[in-house]
């Protein structure tokens, strides 16, 4: 096989199987040199803004040495002259381009150059395929054709590569976008299910950390104090600098934060524009509930997907904060309602409904623990006369003071409730060793002592009365007795009635 056949075979192989540009181009350079007799054959690349030309691959066979990596200003090159003049081959360079310093320094006699254009789109000039020689070399049409053919093959390969790079870049962008969409839906889902803001904030910061558009995310839970200041707690390993940035924002940007709370401004604001630290402001109805500081790696204006992810995250967190705040208010309102439903407005004591429910519980407990339960029915004596003498309003005050004194008798799990107008019921849990008569005497004495005596009524305490105490009937419920609150109370009421009769008789 002749050398030319061998070169052609190598070239055919490289065109079919070359993995990279070098494997494709080097056999071409060798073949061109062999066919043309040119001392140096090389491929150059030209910057997209056409300022510089660089020798990429070169094959040198004589005195003339063109180095790979050599960079020259495009305007000074022989290639540019050749292109501008539309000449592919110059046989007598000193004559033709006498003014070229490069040509005279390198002592180039013969020069050949074909452009390598992008094959798609704008036909951009990518580089040149060149040959040069100090010896005068006769370049025939076949060699020029070979140069063109190789130039086109290289252009095709470069274009394919550029195309591939472009496709790869778009695929990477699409993947990054998909990741952001997936991240966004994960964050939204977690926010929908969350029951506490601090725990979800830490989780969201962890999820956002997966994205490479930012170098760090610091999450802070904020609580508005009664004096209008915020307290702040870091939910991940935020450093002092980050904490200081968040504190400064809450302290110095009060007005802007108020506008954001009213939904009249973007909740994404700069915590530090120079450092590219963005703050995501999470708000509920009337306060900032959290801050996330995002240390950006790229300009947000250049990446709409990142901006969308951060905006959407802020919205999801703000919706959660509002939902939790609504829930908290509803719970508080329910508690007030429940308290009103089960308590007497005048004295604040549990009411009859509450008493019946609790007494049922206590009786069951007594049954289970095998302990007696004591029920005392307390009925004011002569309350009608108090109302009559001091007026209904001071009668109310008397009832309040009486209820407060009755409460002082309570011990442990005892209960006292306002049963009706001037009637109260006391419930206490006993022990198996109790002697009923002793307990009865002690409890009635305690109730009477606590509630009798001088009562000062009126705003200035200008009116007073000396109260002789209520009638009290106390019964013992024993395990095995009927577990019925109404029956137990009726028995205590009957006992109280006996006491009242006795007290009346004593007064006669
Ligand atoms: N100021 C005031 N009076 C009330 C209230 N609820 C009930 N009363 C009055 O309390 C009185 C209760 O009636 P009685 O138990 O018969 O009055 P009493 O003078 O204590 O009678 P005895 O128990 O027989 O001594 C009635 O006059 C009611 O109008 C209240 O919330 N405030």
Automatic annotation (TrEMBL):
Q: Name one GO biological process term.
A: negative regulation of bacterial-type flagellum-dependent cell motility
Q: Which GO terms describe its cellular component?
A: plasma membrane
Please state the Enzyme Commission number of this protein: 2.7.7.65
Reactions this protein catalyses: 2 GTP = 3',3'-c-di-GMP + 2 diphosphate
What SUPFAM superfamilies does UniProt report for this protein, alphabetically?
A: GAF domain-like (SSF55781), Nucleotide cyclase (SSF55073)
The protein's superkingdom reads Bacteria
Q: Which NCBIfam families match?
A: GGDEF
Q: What is the protein named?
A: diguanylate cyclase
């Amino acid at each position: 096989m002749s050398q030319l056949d061998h070169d052609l075979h190598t070239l055919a192989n490289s065109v079919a199987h070359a993995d990279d540009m070098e494997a494709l181009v080097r056999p071409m350079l060798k073949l061109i040199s062999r066919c043309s007799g040119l001392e140096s054959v090389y491929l150059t690349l030209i910057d997209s803004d056409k300022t510089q030309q660089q020798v990429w691959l070169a094959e040198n066979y004589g005195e003339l040495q063109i180095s790979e990596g050599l960079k020259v200003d495009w305007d000074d090159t022989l290639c540019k002259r050749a292109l501008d003049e539309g000449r592919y081959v110059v046989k007598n360079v000193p004559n033709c381009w006498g003014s070229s310093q490069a040509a005279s320094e390198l002592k180039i006699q013969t020069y050949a150059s074909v452009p390598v254009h992008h094959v798609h789109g704008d036909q951009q000039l990518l580089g040149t395929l060149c040959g040069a020689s100090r010896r005068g070399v006769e370049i025939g049409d076949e060699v020029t054709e070979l140069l063109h053919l190789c130039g086109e093959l290289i252009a095709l390969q470069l274009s394919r590569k550029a195309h591939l790079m472009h496709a790869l870049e778009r695929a990477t962008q699409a993947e990054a976008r998909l990741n952001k969409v997936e991240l966004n839906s994960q964050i939204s889902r977690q926010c929908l299910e969350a029951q506490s803001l601090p725990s979800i904030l830490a989780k969201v910061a962890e999820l956002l950390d997966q994205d490479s558009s930012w170098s760090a995310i610091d999450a802070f839970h904020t609580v508005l104090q009664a004096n209008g200041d915020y307290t702040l707690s870091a939910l991940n390993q935020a450093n002092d600098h980050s904490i200081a940035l968040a504190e400064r924002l809450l302290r110095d940007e009060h007005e802007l934060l108020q506008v954001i709370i009213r939904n009249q401004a973007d909740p994404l604001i700069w915590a530090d524009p120079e450092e590219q630290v963005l703050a995501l402001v999470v708000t509920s109805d009337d306060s900032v509930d959290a801050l996330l500081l995002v240390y950006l790696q790229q300009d947000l204006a250049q990446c709409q997907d990142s901006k969308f992810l951060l905006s959407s995250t802020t919205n999801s967190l703000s919706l959660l904060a509002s939902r939790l705040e609504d829930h908290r208010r509803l719970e508080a309102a329910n508690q007030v309602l429940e308290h009103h439903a089960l308590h007497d407005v005048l004295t604040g004591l549990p009411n009859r409904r509450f008493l019946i429910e609790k007494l049922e519980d206590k009786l069951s407990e007594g049954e289970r623990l095998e302990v007696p339960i004591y029920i005392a029915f307390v009925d004011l004596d002569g309350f009608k006369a108090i109302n009559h003498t001091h007026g209904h309003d001071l009668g109310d005050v008397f009832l309040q003071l009486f209820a407060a004194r009755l409460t002082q008798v309570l011990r442990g799990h005892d209960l006292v409730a306002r049963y009706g107008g001037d009637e109260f019921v006391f419930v206490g849990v006993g022990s198996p060793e109790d002697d009923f008569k002793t307990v009865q005497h002690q409890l009635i004495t305690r109730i009477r002592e606590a509630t009798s005596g001088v009562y000062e009524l009126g705003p200035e305490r200008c009116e007073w009365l000396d109260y002789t105490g209520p009638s009290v009937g106390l019964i013992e419920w024993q395990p095995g007795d009927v577990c019925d609150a109404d029956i137990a109370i009726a028995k205590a009421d009957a006992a109280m009635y006996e006491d009242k009769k006795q007290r009346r008789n004593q007064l006669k």
